[in-house]
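yo

u said u wanted the structure for the complex thing, so here. seqs first:
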Amino acid sequence: MLIAGRALLIIALLIAVYGVAASLYGARSRDDLRGRAWVASGRRAVYALFGIVAVCFTLLEAAFLRSDFSSELVAAHSSTTTPLFYQATAIWSSQEGSLLLWVLLLSGWSSLILLLTRRRLREIAPYATAVLLAIAAFFLCLLIFLETPFARSSPVPVEGVGLNPLLRHPSMMIHPPMLYSGYTLFTIPFAFAIGALITRRLNTDWIQTTRPFALGAWLALGIGVVLGARWSYLELGWGGYWAWDGVENAALMPWLIGTAYLHSAMIQERRGMLKVWNVSLVLAGGILAILGTFLVRSGILSSIHAFGASTLGIPFLVLIVVMIVGSIALVASRARELRSEHRLDSLLSREAIFLLNNLILVALAFVIFWGTFFPLISEALTGSEASVGPPWFGRYVAPLALVLVGLAGLGPVIAWRQATASNLRRTLVVPVGAAITMLAALLIAGGVADKPAALAMFCLATFVVAVVAQEFWRGVQARRAMSREAVPTALFSLVRRNRRRYGGYTVHVGIAVLLVGVAASSSFQDVREARLSPGERTSVGGYEIEYVRPTASIDVASNGQLEKIDFGADLRVRRGAGEATGLATERSYFPSSDPRLGPVSRYFEGEATSEVGLQPGLRRDLWTAISPDIAGLRPAIERGDRVFQQADSLPEATRAAALGEGLRGLVRNYRANPPPATFRVLSSPLVTWIWIGSLIVFGGGLLALWPLPAAARSRATAPAPSGLARAPR
Amino acid sequence: MEALLVLAVLAVAVLMISAPFRAGGPAHSGGTESVDRAELEAERDAKYREIRDAELDYRTGKLSDEHWHSLDSGLRAEAVEILRRLDALDDGRAS
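structre next:
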């Protein structure tokens, strides 16, 4: 299997290199049959590449599911005690496996776009094929020469190290494929933009064709980012969902640029304007997608020295420099073809709002870029790392986000080309009234006046929701006036025929709801750290929490091996005069495979994870995590180490049984004489609305992504003279 | 077994990409539209969408009667111009 895997990777590289050459050669003589045959061959190289990489991936997946520890990768990232779902998904927890996943997804999406465009974009597609295959070839080189997933273990271990316990969470297993789908989908418009620049075919055709891929990239990246936030909230034991960590930022930057592009591309489609801007956004999105992979995989985020030690840092840097220099050179050399066909008619138009929204989104991406790279720049220049934390990001991101939400409300009520002040006033009456009502209600309710940013966000979000509700209502009324349909039918028909518009509006509502959750939970969160013994209480945000009793258990995997030891607590929670409810939290200790650790202490010195206790609610979440104090167990652990180190002469089964009994004794001891434990307790308002808002965003994104019915797409009411043009195909 | 798998995959891949080297291979799949036509059709579709959007903007109160009529007639004239260019392409091909 390992030899076959390596051989297939080499064949995949040869196919990719051949495909680049065939596509470029065919593109130069595409008007004759011979040239077209070379172009078709280049395209089929992409299909073949996808097939070969899929076989490689399947081979590796089978090794994980069989717990084949002759594979170095399986031994390092899985074990017989790892649950089946995590065995199947552990492949992308490793550097090598995730790079293989990257190539698999890239070749899959590339195959799809080339299949869809096999009779279209005839001039652009061969160059796009070459770019896509060149990027695939780069990753294949990494997989063959630097980070092979098919290395053999020597000697073959009896048991694997297992999946990092922190990653044993369903959302963390779906998170990487979503992020990588986003990154690889962004390379599709990037490649076609390069093709369009080379061939000087810079009209709307390539934008329309690649739009579903840009939207798909935006959607996948967004889902990946939210899954990462959810994992952080539930698994990392600090109670937050966003820490402005470099890896999070790496995914957020292309998402922001993608959001800007999805708006500005509409202006080019309609007016032939912003061509330089759009092509620059697409190129930046593609480069940021590679940069995101680079940030995660090169080790540069931990330290510039880690980057030097990484085998992947320099190759990625070279690729990124080539992409940046090549993109700038191409855009500069096509300045004439990229000139706008029209000018902005009015500052009071949807085009102007979109332009402003683009500037804000790019500014946000720049702030995040600067905050992410500042520690590295600082370390490179001064030798000491000066990091910027959440307050720094908040200082710049919060005001930009407020403006963005305001624009998300303003955009839908302004007409394309030129709006009149009187119409605008009329359409703004209800939404502005709703926002003012919300402001008054919040000020009367009290407690928000000292948080002006949160207050502004609540009012602006109300404005957005009111605008979109009004748009839906007016659209339904217009539809009913024309067709006399019932309200539900009219709503369905309206949305079905205008999916981009109403999908976009839905996304605006989702973003507003999500940001309300962010503003509320970050501004009005109550946090308490309390060291409690059983029977003691603490309070936070109106909740009273009592530490009722300790819990302690040993989890054994299906093969009889010890998987983890859990120490936790049962809590009783009461809010005001309400009924008391139960809540449980625990800390899980996974055994380390470090042979230098003692036979007992290895069960307490490995990775530890938190199982948080969570009472989610639409108004607020009560969140808690325990940090048991196991210092009191240390003497018993050390005594156990000494005893079992001297028990080498015992038969393995006897020794294992005795060790198991010893560990059970420790657990019983913890339950009988529980030491005080530290509890981190948070009362966070409206966190649930972050997840609800995200679902609304993704629902709206899917709606906008769904293709229009053929009738709606081709319906032309233009009174064309008879004989003008054929019906669109 | 491993060698067989590699050879089988290699054979399929070579078969897929080797058309230019084979006499009588499928040099070109028919039905390819001209690049100019495809671009014009993309422009036409965008213009249709713009006409529909302007109408929806009008019906949802974002445009006045006067403004919409002037905008709509301008957009339709632009659409007709694109259709004329498409017809001209077809005429050129027919002649």
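Helices of chain B lie at 2-17, 35-59, 65-94. Chain B touches chain A through 58 residues (CB under 8 Å).
cya
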